[in-house]
Amino acid sequence: MDYLFHIVPVVAVGLQITLKIFIITIVLSLPLGILMAIGRISKIAILRKAMYAYIYVMRGTPLMLQILFIYYGLPFIIDGLKLPAFPAAIIAFVLNYAAYFAEIFRGGIQSIDRGQYEGAKVLGMTYVQTMRRIILPQVIKRVLPPVSNETINLLKDTSLVYILAMNDILRITRSIVQRDFDTTAFLVAAVFYLFFTFILTKVFGYLEKRYAVYDE
């Protein structure tokens, strides 16, 4: 028991990196995903095709490969550009998850009846006003379940920064196990992940119930 109380604070140190990556990625990738979704269904062919190609590439290649490319590959393409580990990780996570959120929001936007666009046009609303006041509020309600799933996946995917030698939960946990030849640290790390997954599940569950009230 003494050993458990000793390693818990040590593993908890890794939460700083894990939560920073998680929060920054969510804050940046969600609005970027919405913009990409709008571009994905745009009437401008070049923009629509560009968004399709980007989303296809980001969803079709592993996030780990993207992290490695940004950290190790960019210096070969752009001479002298060597990003520190944390910014490289943030860029990779934001660009990757924005693509996933874009497809989620695209599906939500296209599920809205076209008559609502026409009604807004009759009222004199611009496209931006229609999206902001009428379409997106409905879309957010409809996409909460898939956004919830991706958010939980993001929490777990933060462990991938281990490959950049960043001291997240996973890296610290492994160093403890290798040092002490005891797997208890893995159980502690699992509890941390499960705890935050529980919180996210409850938060999204609350949001879904709150938005469901408007359907009654």
TrEMBL record:
Cited Gene3D superfamilies: MetI-like (1.10.3720.10)
InterPro entries referenced in this protein's UniProt entry, alphabetically: AA_ABC_transptr_permease_3TM (IPR010065), ArtM/GltK/GlnP/TcyL/YhdX-like (IPR043429), MetI-like (IPR000515), MetI-like_sf (IPR035906)
Keywords: Amino-acid transport, Cell membrane, Membrane, Transmembrane, Transmembrane helix, Transport
Domain of life, per lineage: Bacteria
UniProt domain ABC transmembrane type-1: residue ranges: 15-204
Topology in the lipid bilayer: Multi-pass membrane protein
PROSITE patterns: ABC_TM1
Subcellular location: Cell membrane
Transmembrane segments: 6-39, 51-74, 86-105, 184-207
Family matches, as Pfam families: BPD_transp_1 (PF00528)
NCBIfam families: HEQRo_perm_3TM
Family affiliation: Belongs to the binding-protein-dependent transport system permease family.
PANTHER family: L-CYSTINE TRANSPORT SYSTEM PERMEASE PROTEIN TCYL, MEMBRANE COMPONENT OF AMINO ACID ABC TRANSPORTER
Name of the protein this chain belongs to: Amino acid ABC transporter permease
Native source species: Megasphaera intestinihominis
Lineage, opening ranks: Bacteria, Bacillati, Bacillota, Negativicutes, Veillonellales
